[in-house]
Every structure is written in C-alpha cells, then in structure tokens.
Design goal:
The chain is α/β, with parallel strands linked by helices. Helices cover 47% and strands 12% of the residues. The chain is built from 20 helices and 16 strands. A hairpin with a 4-residue loop joins strand 14 (550-555) and strand 15 (560-564). Helix 1 packs parallel to helix 3 (84-112) and helix 4 (118-126) crosses helix 20. The longest helix is centred in the N-terminal third of the chain and has 34 residues, at 2-35.
Length: 593
C-alpha cells in the first residue's frame, strides 16, 4: 500500500513535470510573438541568410528564456507542492508576469533604444503616462492571464494524449539545433562582418550571441567586403526631402584642430588667433559633441548626437552637408593624415571629399605644415566654388617642429600636478605653432571666404589615453569657435553653442536650405539661442548629458554619476528623468518604423 502511494506520487510529479515542459514551450511561442515587436527598430532582414538567422535565433532564444523561467521558478515548486491546481494557477501568474515584463520591455526598447535596466526602469517609470496610453495597460495583463489559465488547464487535461505522440524529444532536438546553430552562424557573421546578421545583436533582451572574430580571421575567413550581403536601411536621414537653393556660392574653409582647448586662445599663447577672433564672431561657450576625434568629427560633419555613430546606414551615407555641397557644384577637399581618415567614424563620413593625406613619419607638426601647403596649392587650382576641411593634429601629440622657438612658460591658471604642468606648457608650444600656421594660411586667404575655426575636441593634460578617453569634463569638451562671415560685424556670442549647430548654420546660410534643422540634425542655427536644457556629449558607449548646472555621465550598462558643472565634485543625487527621456528619444528619432 505504501509503495502504491509512493508510486502514485511519483507518477503525479512526473505528469506535472511533463505538463510543465509543454507549458514552457507554449509560453516560448507567446514570447516569440511578442518578440516580433522588437524588430520594428532594426527592421526586417532583406536576404535569405538574414531571415534564416533571425528565424533560428528567435526560436532558440525565446524557447531558452522560457525554459530558464520554468527551471528556476516552476520546477522547484513542482517538487515541493505537487498539486496540479496550485501549480497551474501559480504557473499562469508567473507566465503572465513574465510576458507582461517582456511586453513592457518592447515598449521601452522602441522608445529609448535600450532594454530594461535599473537606469531604463527609472526613466520609464518617470514617463509611465507617455508609455502606457489608454486602458491597454489593464486589459492586456488580464487577457494574458486568461490565456495562461485556459492553456494551463487545456494542457493538463490532454497531457497524456500529447505524451503518446512522442513529440517532446523531437521538439527538444529541434530547439537545441536552432539555439546552437544561431550562435555558430553569429560566430561566422561576426568574423566576416556580415551586418545583415550582427545588426540584430542587441535586439532581443538578455541576448549574448557568441563571437570569435579573431579565431575565424586566423583561419582565413574574411567577408568584410562581401557584396552579396545587403544592408537594411532603416535610418530616416533626412526625415524629409531637403529644399535647398542658394543665390550665391561662397568658398568655405573649415579648420578643425585636434585637442584644441578654448581657454588657451589668449594673447600669450595664440596672439594671431586671439586678434583674429576679436575681428570676427567669437563663440565663448562652445562645446564639441565628443571628447575623442571620432565623436567630435562626427558631431561636426553630421550634426547628430554620438548615439548614431554606429548606425549601419551611415557607413553608406555621407553627411547631408557634404552631399548637398556636392549637388550644388562644390569641389570638396580634405587635408589630414592617414590616421585622420582611419580613426573617423562612420565609414562614409569623408565619402564626398577628395582627400590629400600628409605623411606622419616626421611627426604631427610636419604633417600639419604639409597639410597647410597642400591646401594652399589645391585652392589655387580651383575654378569653381569649393569647400575644404583642414584637420591639424599637433596639439594632440604636444608636437612642434625641431628647433621651433615658441612662447615662454607660464603658471597654469588652475592648480596642476608637476607632470601636468610640463604637459601644459608643452601644449602651449604646440598651440603657438598652430597659431603661426593659421597666420600664414589666413593672411593669404581671400576675404570673401567663409572661415570656421574650431576644435575637434578639448584636451586633458595626461599621458594616460584611457583616462582621456573616459573623461567627459569641460576641459575635454569645450573648444574655440571663431567664424569669419564676409561682410558681417564682429562680436561675441556668450550663450552655449555646440558642434551640432554647425551643420544647420552652413545648410541655411551657405546652401539655402529651408527645412527645419530637426529634419537632419540634433542642433539649431548657431545664431539662434537654443532653448534645449541639455546637450549630449560622447558616443553610444560612454556619454555625458550637459545640463544647466550639472553633468551626468552614463555608461553603456546604464550606470551613471552626476557631477557639478565644473566636473570637480560628484553630486549624490538622482538623475533628472525628463531630460533623460528627451535624450533617449532624440537617439531614436531618426529611425524609421
């Protein structure tokens, strides 16, 4: 009798376990249906290989998630409380919570471009009314719970009939093949740079596809230039067709100096540029869009915040500024070095330029001299309107030519460590060298040329490249901006401006574009004070939000720190959710749905 009771207990547990597996499989299917919502952001595949990967990845990933939930939350209860009514009700509630969380995550992902994290949850909670509109946030959970209860009971009544068909093992093998093959295909795609596959890497939550790029390259697999892989273009850039008509075609020279701090354009360090700024328009509080060459140059030419830097579309789409210049008959010249081209992102950023690359063998200072000479020669060869980008690089390396006699050393305005003082004065020597190059360049330039002088980014006095890369302080961000508009009066602009305003200014003033700047940029015309209370600085991995009196630094995992406006003290407070919500939406605004 006792043995029969034990056997019935074991049979009941076995039946409950079988039922649990099928219930988990059913919820995996529901999760896949909800997961389709994630695909609105990256767009659907446009090739057979893309559809094949997405299919096996979706089946494997959501089935795996469903099984993990079962294993952690249902299987222990099956052993502790092997009563079908209790378990069915409990399982339905757990499944409902899981699917509602997944559904909520799709809403957050569509709106902010990130999955649920403590950071994203804080934002979403503050913006709950905007995310959850109408009565659907009540109706949907009730509907899901009803479906779960019906499905739990239906499976329980038919579990023995289902088991007799021997489908379980076949399904496990099929799902296992999908799960493993999706990771194997991704290993190849990562090594071969098949963007039709890798662009889905961050689409699903808790998804960590396997990578082995180095391994694959060592075995001779390289498909980075595979012409058969077609990329889905989902970025709406611009958001509306441009309407541009210019009455005149002035020549334009943009001088972008690497690592160019705004606070050292003074009469001691850069006497020529300081005098030049007094005769033209000086923007006294101008910020780059990043603290690195790539993010700073991206914000200068595209006018978009750094969260778009890795957009696949932009590897094939040149900045609208240069596209429009080319359409209006301008000749575009780029004067920089090999590193200047190789470090820039995305791949198409200099697509419309005819590059003239200076050798870097003798150092940055000699390459800058060569770039200035090459520009002078190129300018004299032009017979139509031209647009030139001259990138000078000496300040990044504290470089000057051998035998250069610069300026006397001075005491820094701010307290610096001994090693920083040495770098500070060597940096001033480099700026003085740049000042002399600017003098010989600009004095020979016709007065009717529009000239824009700025920095790609600021400069931190450190030899630690990792420290410089992660520092988002004003020292690393604030740069000079001096514009010579032929025929305009000189003056100072004291409100905050940024690189995001350069593209709208040139598009309207030079190219006669009448579209709202929001159609193609994150900025506004430089001569129009911006009522926006925040500014995005950085790329999509580590970035800062500059607000009125504080700076919030956020990493890719959603961890954040808040500093005062000078970046000298950390503030122990919570972030301002309204501004962060605007930031996240701006980072998704150009993606089509």
């Amino acid at each position: 009798m006792v043995e029969q009771i034990k056997q019935r207990g074991r049979d009941r547990v076995s039946r409950l376990i079988n039922w649990g597996h099928w219930f988990a499989f059913f919820n995996g299917i529901l999760a896949m249906l909800i997961g389709i919502r994630y695909l609105q952001s990256p767009g659907l595949p446009d090739s057979l290989i893309g559809w094949g990967y997405l299919t096996v990845s979706t089946i494997g990933h959501f089935s795996f998630l469903s099984f993990i939930v079962y294993l952690v939350l249902l299987f222990p209860i099956t052993l502790l409380l092997p009563y079908s009514r209790i378990l069915r009700g409990y399982a339905a509630v757990i499944a409902c919570i899981g699917l509602c969380t997944l559904l909520y995550d799709t809403v957050v992902y569509q709106d902010y471009g990130m999955h649920l994290t403590p950071f994203a949850f804080d934002l979403a909670w503050a913006d709950l009314n905007g995310l959850m509109q109408g009565p659907s946030f009540i109706i949907i959970p009730v509907a899901i719970l009803t479906i779960e209860l019906v499905a739990a009971n239906w499976l329980w009544k038919r579990i023995e009939r289902i088991q007799r068909r021997n489908l379980g093992n076949k399904l496990v093998v099929f799902i296992g093949i999908c799960f493993v093959s999706s990771h194997l295909v991704h290993i190849w795609a990562d090594a071969a740079d098949v963007t039709e596959i890798t662009r889905f890497d961050d689409t699903y939550p808790i998804s960590y596809p396997a990578t082995a790029k180095t391994f694959m390259e060592n075995h001779g697999i390289d498909g980075s230039n595979n012409p058969d892989i077609k990329v889905e273009r989902s970025l709406r850039y611009p958001q509306a067709p441009l309407q541009c008509h210019a009455d005149a075609q002035p020549n334009v020279l943009v001088i972008a100096v690497d690592s160019f701090r705004a606070d050292l354009v003074d009469s001691q360090t850069m006497p020529f540029l300081q005098h030049y700024s007094q005769q033209n328009q000086l923007f006294t509080h101008h910020l780059s869009g990043g603290n690195q060459y790539s993010s700073g140059m991206f914000s200068l030419l595209y006018g978009l915040q750094g969260s778009y830097m890795d957009a696949v579309d932009l590897n094939y789409t040149a900045p609208l500024l240069t596209q429009t210049l080319k359409q209006q008959g301008y000749q575009l010249g780029l004067f920089t070095t090999d590193d200047g081209v190789n470090e820039a992102k995305p791949k198409a950023i200099f697509k419309d330029f005819a590059p003239v690359l200076a050798s870097e063998k003798g150092g940055s200072a000699l390459s800058d001299i060569a770039s200035v000479d090459a520009f002078q020669q190129w300018r004299h060869q032009q017979h139509g309107p031209w647009f030139a980008l001259l990138n000078l690089k000496s300040p990044e390396d504290y470089d000057t030519p051998v035998g250069f006699l610069g300026v006397q050393t001075v005491k820094p305005a701010k307290p610096l460590k001994p090693a920083e003082k040495v770098l500070f004065n060597q940096y001033r020597q480099s700026l003085n060298f740049i000042d002399q190059q600017l003098q010989r360049l600009l004095e020979a330039l016709p007065q009717d040329t529009i000239v824009l002088i700025t920095g790609v980014s600021g400069k931190l006095f450190t030899s630690n490249t990792d420290e410089a890369r992660h520092n988002l302080s004003p020292d690393n961000i604030q740069v000079p901006l001096i514009i010579h508009w032929p025929g305009s009066v000189s003056g100072k602009v004291n409100y905050r401006t940024s690189h995001y305003g350069v593209v709208p200014t040139l598009m309207t003033q030079v190219l006669g574009c009448t579209n709202p700047a929001s159609d193609y940029s994150a900025g506004r015309h430089l001569m129009q004070p911006d009522d926006q209370t925040w500014l995005y600085i950085g790329d999509n991995r580590v970035f800062a939000i500059y607000q009125q009196n504080e700076i919030t630094v956020i990493d890719r995992h959603g961890k954040y720190r808040i500093y005062d406006e000078d970046y000298s003290h950390r503030l122990h407070k919570k972030m301002s959710a309204p501004e962060m919500i605007e930031v996240m939406r701006e980072g998704r605004r150009l993606y089509g749905h």
